[in-house]
Amino acid sequence: MIHLFTTGGTIDKIYHDANSEFSVGDSLLPELLAEANVTVPWRITELCRKDSLELTEADRADIRAAVAACPEERVIITHGTDTMAETAAALSDIGDKAIVLFGAMQPARMRRSDAVFNLGFAMAAATLLEPGIYIAMNGEVFEAGKVRKNLRAGRFERC
Description:
alpha/beta
C-alpha cells in the first residue's frame, strides 16, 4: 500500500483571474489515479492546502509526524516546488520508509500540466526505491539534501 499525503502547492492550485490570484483546491489525485487505472493499493490523507512558500516549520513538523506515524513503508507527498527540498530535509531522519515528494510546475487542472506524468513517475519511484527521502520531478529522482530548484530553468537539478 502507498500512502499519499497532500500538502497543496501548484499541483492543486485554482487560478481565479488573469492577475494570478489563486487558491489551493481539492486534490485531483483520486481522479488522476482512477483515470490512470492504478491498481497498486493506495490511500490519501490531506495534511494542508498551502502554497509551499506559506509552509511553516510547524507545518513541516506536522508533515514529518504524519509520515513517521503511518504504518505504510511507501509514502508519496504532494508538495509545492519552491520549498520541496526544505521539507525533504525535515524528513531526513525517517529511515524505514521510501518517501517520495513530487509536485507540478503547472496545476493539474491545466491542460498542459506536468502533474500527471510526475504522479505516475512518483508512484513508480515509491514502489521501486529503497528506504530514503527522494524528490521525483520530470523524469528524475533526486536524493534529499542533494537537489535544488533552478528557478531560471524551471527544473530541479543536483547540487
